[in-house]
């Protein structure tokens, strides 16, 4: 599972039993490969109390919700935020722990949510669904395949509240399964626009596109397989109609969906960030980097380099390929 991951086979991250503070500003959003590949999270907007049983290519998953309902794809923002913070710390050489402390306001802001009183109430409900949703699976993380049962988060608690009742600081303990994904760097970088996607199905479509197009120019998938992998509970005809609306709106970050003959969906990468703006990296340069950075997600590195280029004031590059490879070599050497 880790062949498309961000990170390589360098030194293992430093691990501590103390709480890890989520204090990395502007950490790029990152998602674990397991939940990108398989439909763990509900796409429903009302409490989803159905038990999900899913098998695909040897993967077996059973997801049992609590009375609060199954964790939703919007609840997943909390996990993405935690994973992003941990990976930023790993890349900076800091010690990490699966026990985290985070500031509720920072989490809401980073995931493009409002900070009203209702938002804090919804955040607490999301923690309850994440802790209450139980998973039994044989999915491997960090190269270890075991059949086990666990919650998406092991525990959570409000550390401090304001006098008005809003949570200020929250302590979260991630599952061992999810933390192994971080330790093995079995994660992918997401577009910063991910949190602007409001429709649950479109979020899921973006995840699948990012997972399967990360190392290739296009991905073809049957409507039946996409229906299954999306986790949509809608009948096939309703799913197809929603899929066609998404294709017509063409609003997914980084990817374009097209309907093809044979009941297929073709997913392609858009051109360089900004629809053609900015430096263009050639396929030859990507291939060269793949050869000397085995195990790294070349497209994630390219996205990170573009972000660095933007943050650096968009300097003029005499040779974009050479500049990208020089930057990538330094990035990979840091691990």
Q: How many domains would you count in the coordinates?
A: 3
Q: Major sheet: order of its strands?
A: 1-5-11-10
Could you tell me the number of beta strands?
A: 15
Would you identify the regions where 5 or more consecutive residues have pLDDT less than 50? 1-10, 272-276
Mass-distribution shape: globular
Average pLDDT works out at: 87
* Span between termini: 19 Å
Structural class: alpha+beta
Radius of gyration: 20 Å
Model description:
With 335 residues, this protein is an alpha+beta fold. 38% of the residues lie in helices and 21% in strands. It has three domains: 2-189, no CATH class; 197-269, Arc Repressor Mutant, subunit A; 283-334, no CATH class. It has eleven helices and 15 strands. Helix 9 runs parallel beside helix 11 (320-334). The longest helix has 16 residues, at 76-91. The two termini are 19 Å apart.
Q: How are the elements arranged and paired?
A:
Elements: E1 20-21, E2 30-32, H1 33-37, E3 52-56, E4 59-64, H2 76-91, E5 99-103, H3 104-110, H4 117-132, E6 134-137, E7 140-141, E8 144-145, E9 148-151, E10 153-161, E11 167-174, H5 176-183, E12 187-189, H6 200-213, E13 218-222, H7 223-230, H8 236-249, E14 255-260, E15 264-269, H9 283-292, H10 298-311, H11 320-334
Helix pairs in contact: 9-11
């Amino acid at each position: 599972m880790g062949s498309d991951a961000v990170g390589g086979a360098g030194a293992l991250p430093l691990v501590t039993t103390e709480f890890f503070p989520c204090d990395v500003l502007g950490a790029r959003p990152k998602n674990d490969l397991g939940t990108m590949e398989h439909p763990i999270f509900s796409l429903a907007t009302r409490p989803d109390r159905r038990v999900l049983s899913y098998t695909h290519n040897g993967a077996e998953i059973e997801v049992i919700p609590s009375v609060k309902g199954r964790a939703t794809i919007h609840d997943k923002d909390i996990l993405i935020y935690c994973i992003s913070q941990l990976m930023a710390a790993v890349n900076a050489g800091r010690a990490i722990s699966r026990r985290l402390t985070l500031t509720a306001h920072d989490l809401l802001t980073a995931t493009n949510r409002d900070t009203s009183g209702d938002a804090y109430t919804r955040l607490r409900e999301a923690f309850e669904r994440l802790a209450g949703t139980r998973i039994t699976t044989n999915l491997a993380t960090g190269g270890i395949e075991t059949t086990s049962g666990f919650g998406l988060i092991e525990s959570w608690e409000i550390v401090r509240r304001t006098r008005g009742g809003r949570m200020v600081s929250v302590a979260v303990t991630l599952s061992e399964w999810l933390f192994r994904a971080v330790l093995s760097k079995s994660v992918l970088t997401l577009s910063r626009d991910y949190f602007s996607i409001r429709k649950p199905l479109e979020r899921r479509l973006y995840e699948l596109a990012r997972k399967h197009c990360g190392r290739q120019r296009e991905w073809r998938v049957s409507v039946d397989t996409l229906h299954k992998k999306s986790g949509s509970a809608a009948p096939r005809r309703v799913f197809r109609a929603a899929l066609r609306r998404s294709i017509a709106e063409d609003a997914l970050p980084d990817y374009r969906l097209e309907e093809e003959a044979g009941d297929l969906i073709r997913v392609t990468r858009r051109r360089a960030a900004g629809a053609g703006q900015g430096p263009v990296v050639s396929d030859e340069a990507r291939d060269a980097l793949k050869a000397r950075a085995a195990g790294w997600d070349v497209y994630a590195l390219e996205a990170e380099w573009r972000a660095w280029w933007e943050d650096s004031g968009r300097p003029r590059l005499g040779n974009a390929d050479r500049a990208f490879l020089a930057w990538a070599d330094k990035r990979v050497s840091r691990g």
